[in-house]
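step 4 of 6: structure.
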Amino acid sequence: MANKYDVIIVGAGFAGLSAGLALKEKGLNTCILEARGRVGGRTETKWLDKDMQIDLGGQWIGPTQDRMYELVEKYNVKIFPTQLFGKEKYYYFNEIHDQVPPEMMTMFDVIDDLAKKVNLEAPQKSPDINYQDRVTFDAWLHTQIDDEEVIEFLGRILAGGLLSSDAGEVSLFQVLYYIASGQGTEILLGSKGGAQQDRIVGGPQALASKMAEDYGSELKLNQVVRTVRKMDQSYFVETENGNCYETKFVLMALPPSVLNSKITFIPELPTMKKKMLQNILPGSASKYHAVYDKPFWRKQGLSGQFNLSQGWIMESIDNSNENREEGIITFFVYGVDSIKLNELPEEKRKQLLINELVKVYGEQAREPKYFLTQDWNEETFTNGCFTGHFAPCGFLKYGAIIREEVGGIHWAGTETATIWNGYFEGAVRSGEREAEKIIKKNELLSMKNM
Amino acid sequence: MANKYDVIIVGAGFAGLSAGLALKEKGLNTCILEARGRVGGRTETKWLDKDMQIDLGGQWIGPTQDRMYELVEKYNVKIFPTQLFGKEKYYYFNEIHDQVPPEMMTMFDVIDDLAKKVNLEAPQKSPDINYQDRVTFDAWLHTQIDDEEVIEFLGRILAGGLLSSDAGEVSLFQVLYYIASGQGTEILLGSKGGAQQDRIVGGPQALASKMAEDYGSELKLNQVVRTVRKMDQSYFVETENGNCYETKFVLMALPPSVLNSKITFIPELPTMKKKMLQNILPGSASKYHAVYDKPFWRKQGLSGQFNLSQGWIMESIDNSNENREEGIITFFVYGVDSIKLNELPEEKRKQLLINELVKVYGEQAREPKYFLTQDWNEETFTNGCFTGHFAPCGFLKYGAIIREEVGGIHWAGTETATIWNGYFEGAVRSGEREAEKIIKKNELLSMKNM
């Protein structure tokens, strides 16, 4: 006999946990099935030593991410500011600058203005989507600016830094949607006052763990869901290790590409939904950490925050911990470059990257004490970071059905969010959004059965 | 105990059947597992009456598709020419014309010239791929021409008619690759002397059936492969209904998106291969057939071959049978339009389409005797037609590993072909290509074991 629940939630990342808590609070009988041996989804924290955490996955929160700050307070986890002890710098035209090129400043304004016209709830109804979703961000930049290096730089900062993709992979509309959902480029790209303002002690995974603890024993780890079978009015959720759970509602709270490649629905999902899920491709971000004895860059007046217009490294940030002497530079490679770099042998890869660090930080960057990376592409239950993006035309084709449930099957996850899409905040809100829908539906069901 | 084979082939379309026959000829012990209850993959023939076949899927062959003509001869199936009794027509600028606009003729030449530079074997080494794979075909057309209707028309004919996608979904490079592999736009778009020259009596499925018969009893239908598990030097191929086959080599001969969503590999595929498979998205073609008492358009001097620059219908063709009085107009809707149209109720959809037929063929088109369609998007073991395309940047990222085997796992299917990619011919050649590789590897294995 299958265990019976009102709702089975698949995935114990921020979306799944938020949904579980919201549903539990209303008295619904729920269960969360998580494929991994831990909660937290696309976050993982490694401790190199006491007080020295390395956030291998998602890590920052910032202003207007209200639900995340509320959770931080509710669960009494500590936060600390991103370490900023100097000036942000930009490497372009083969030189180090204090500002991005003026053409870029203008373009940020142009893009923010375009983003304001995006209809977040019904993207397919946005005024210029027919053009904007059919042009890659890279190709569109070529229609706006002449300087190839500025075009490249803009693509790297916006398609790379935001969507962990190449500017040639995503449509202009995808970039605009993401920017609109994240309140504009200034907040999205910023540290103090922006999306990279604060860190969580123990990483967001520490917060996720507290949420899981609060949720309680009906969270089951190492449960790889393989099949969702509908029979009569019930769904039967079957796991790889042979467990079967019966439920009225299923909430899918995992990345679309994992969902698409790992879970079989019987009967099949409607064609549109299936195709929609196929069309959301995971980003490719490689995140590296170079740990040094001291944050030597601070003496040079540098914040550690750097953007590069060329080369493998797209951006770096000071990721040191408070109250520790060591300095940590965390840096990113995105999109096509991330894929190409992963093909190289490890030692060669490290050498190329260190050389680029030396270019901006000087010879002191040559010998890090530790050099770490985490390849989320390889994680079978994640399939790539930070977030998914539609292939061009995806919003045009599937914009209307992103959040549409299929019978009792609901869809959460940051990729479905309208506010802070791609962030923890979006994940939390998406989980709570679906919880609310399910609560209403369940009330109707209960009334019918009275 | 598992049954033991040298090679298990997954999929009995043209790639799988060709591979099976080539391997069997060399004395290898092989087995083909097919998910459906029939062979032939993306082809299906419906008989409305004796001698009146309706090809619901792939149907044409043409010059330079040498392997297909050899198979037709070997298996003694009959072919007949596409019915052409009048002039091809083009509907644009709100009028019917005998020729495409002159700007389009120029662009065909420009595109053919660009296609000549494509490196089919190593696409990632093509000279201009860094630009060409990062711009959608639609956006690139906007850099070449001013007239919006001409741009739209070109996108529909090339991205639509060839790749069953919207010009905003595919990169310029994807279009060029396809054109290069199919010997240029003139052959690809043509009927007599081109890719739509001949039809097969009973459809290509009749040919596939004869190939299957020749192959023999080791072709097993209704075997849905779910898991490919490697243990020691063997692979164990497990089906949904609990069968297990042991083999030295596995040949995957099914569409990439089906492969990606249906089959679990243990251990997992290398990350690059997995991401590559995710990045090949199935096209969206809807194929409709309107059957009339007579081919009335011939009296108007029309061939039935029409291209439209606007509206749902992208192109039509006379698909009547030889020696039958009825006339059949077959027409196509592609890409975003195909998805949007499928969302409409059936009766409304039919009305919109018939209205468009009336626009070009007159009131006689108003009342077809039969009106048929086949939605390949809904077919779970096909997932969309005609063929798959890379999302933009896909060739840049994964061009080097399209055909790269993973241990004893090989990859066939028309999406892997360098010649006639996307066609039956490409499928056949891909199957024979991998058969040859496996034969060589198997010889080496045998020598080692002597």
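step 5 of 6: annotate
 - Chain B has a mean pLDDT of 95.
 - Residues 1 and 201 of chain B are 43 Å apart (CA to CA).
step 6 of 6: archive
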